[in-house]
Specification:
Blueprint: E1 9-10, E2 16-20, E3 23-28, E4 31-36, E5 42-46, E6 49-53, H1 59-80, E7 83-90, E8 95-99, E9 102-106, E10 113-115, E11 121-126, E12 130-135, H2 138-150, E13 161-164
Antiparallel strand pairs: 1-6, 2-3, 3-4, 5-6, 7-12, 7-13, 8-9, 9-10, 11-12
Pfam families: Ribosomal_L6
Subunit structure: Part of the 50S ribosomal subunit.
Keywords: Ribonucleoprotein, Ribosomal protein, RNA-binding, rRNA-binding
Length: about 180
Amino acid sequence: MSRIGRLPIDIPAGVEVNVDGASVTVKGPKGELSLEVAKPIQVEVVDGQVQVTRPDDERESRSLHGLTRTLIANDIVGVTDGYSKGLEVVGTGYRVASKGAGIEFALGYSHPIAVEPPAGITFTVEGNNKVIVAGISKQAVGEVAANLRKLRKPEPYKGKGVRYAGEQIRRKAGKSGK
């Protein structure tokens, strides 16, 4: 049995979980998320807990068991606490500023880069070199943060670019003289 998949998920107060066939909907104080469960996996709500079960021990069923349980648990945490990911802009002349709901980066290109948040995501700018991406969906927050990092990845010689908060950049030695 999957060590992760067999664990029940406690439903906190103020959260409502509805299972309708292969669709699981989680409603909480911060919003609502829905998830389509893959074919062989069954989900049911029993005594204030969510139980995820699989019908057999086939390879596909085993691999989807723990995944489905974790996705439902992430949705429950998202609608109660939410998720956030921090980004740092490092480099001389590199900065970020908020423009309405969106943000604007100056990353050494000939033009500023304006980014608008997708639905369900908020940007918070701290100082002129820190951005916090927040939302209720763990997947959406991580994807938006990764796309912002892609605007100017940290380079290995001086470490300039957009990096995750606390990320260690592997540094390389530059040219060596004779």
